[in-house]
Amino acid sequence: MTEPVAYLSKYLDNSTNITRYKPENQRLLSSNPLYTAEQLHPRVKMTQAEFDEWKELYYRIIELSLTAYKMLNEILDSTHNNSGKYTKLAKRVYQDNDFMSVSKKQAELANLFVNYSPDNPEKTIEIVPDMKWFVQRNDTKDRYRFLSKDIVTSDNEFNYSSLKYSAKQFDTKEEAEKWTNPLTEAVQLAVEDE
Q1: Which sign does the torsion angle of CA 24, 29, 34, 36 carry?
Q2: Are 44 and 112 in contact (CB under 8 A)?
Q3: What is residue 97's predicted lDDT score, i.e. its pLDDT?
Q4: Whole-angstrom distance, CA of residue 82 vs CA of residue 173
Q5: Phi/psi of residue 56, each to 5°?
Q6: Is the pLDDT confidence value at 37 over 80?
Q7: Residue 78 burial (C-beta neighbours within 10 Å; 0-12, 13-18, 19+)
Q8: Which residue has better confidence, 131 or 23?
Q9: Fewer Cβ atoms within 10 A, N terminus or C terminus of the chain?
Q10: What's the whole-number mean pLDDT along residues 84-108?
């Protein structure tokens, strides 16, 4: 947990004060944390692929002097075309059928557009690993650890791989669990790690 950046302090004379540091005073009744730096300036969490698309889109919008509205239209156009430029951002924003969820994700990107600093992207964006579900053997000491992309062999047996990049990836735990058995389990792992 990150440390608070402001405290609300109440004193014996019923006065209150907001301070940056937790005060140590004998007249102090209480000192409660107000918020953390992350709450004050939250960062948008993105995968590296989403961030790469974001940078390209941002420079395109700035170069053409377009608005946040036009930016969202650029992303929306990618939902209709699997080979579109911004498919990762489109999936991020428009994959949900819930209008409110889509609106919140649109607002998040519009807010990012306004506050983004290309010189200091880490102030507004946090890169998180792309997580997927895999089926792995319970005994991970085995060399062939992951259920392979070629799930079934010609002998109708499950095929396993020692490398994560050649393993079958699932978007949800439920999809992965359909392929588990008593000797395997569904695990969520970062795709980039090997």
Answers
A1: positive
A2: yes
A3: 82
A4: 24
A5: -60, -45
A6: no
A7: buried
A8: 131
A9: N
A10: 88
Q: What is the mean pLDDT of residues 129-156?
A: 79
Q: Are 35 and 23 in contact (CB under 8 A)?
A: no
Report yes or no: 16 and 9 within 8 Å, Cβ to Cβ. Answer: yes
Distance CA 186, CA 167 (A): 12
**Contact call for residues 184 and 136 (beta carbons, < 8 A):** yes
Q: What is the chain's Cα-based Rg?
A: 24
CA diameter of the chain: 82
Rounded distance, CA 116 to CA 97, Å? 27
Say whether pLDDT at 193 is over 60: no
Q: Tokens 């014996």, residue?
A: 12
Which region among 37-41, 87-91, 115-119, 129-133 has the lowest average model confidence (pLDDT)?
37-41
Q: Is the pLDDT of residue 194 over 50?
A: no
Q: Is the pTM of this model over 0.70?
A: no
> How many angstroms separate the Cα of 102 from the Cα of each of 68, 98, 175?
15, 6, 24
Q: What are phi and psi of 25, to 5 degrees?
A: -135, 140
Angle, nearest 10°, between helix axes 99-115 and 87-94?
130
**Residue 32 three-state SS:** strand
